[in-house]
Design brief:
Layout (H helix, E strand, L loop, with lengths): L2 H20 L4 H8 L3 H8 L7 H11 L3 H6 L5 H9 L3 H18 L7 H22 L1
Helix pairs in contact: 2-3, 7-8
Amino acid sequence: MGKEFIKDKLDTAVRIRQIRENAGLTQEAFAEILGISLSGYKKIENAENQISLNGLRRLKRELHVSTDYILLGEDENLDAEWDRIMCYTDSDKMLLMLRLLLYFTKAKDSTFYLRNKQDSIDETILHVIDEFKKRKR
């Protein structure tokens, strides 16, 4: 194996560990999200094994993590993201703003939500937005 391949493998392992830690998850919980055993996950985090395509898909779905970031360390361009946001409806912008507010409120406690919990929170936020619109009429 070439030095560059080994470095890429180690860098990917570091990013995966950081994602897990930033989400406030144990190795056991993270392995469950990936659908693998704890020992299998530990091998990924120690760069002995690489994450599977299925694991990448699960991280994208459950934690909204870019596969480009996991594999290459590349984040999407912030300006491109802003341009997409500017095309959202006002309701979607408000939903995004409230989700970010909740995210940063919880970030100070290192509490982050998995997809199913976020969906429940989104329903509540959408209900609040609908009530706001009704009162505004």
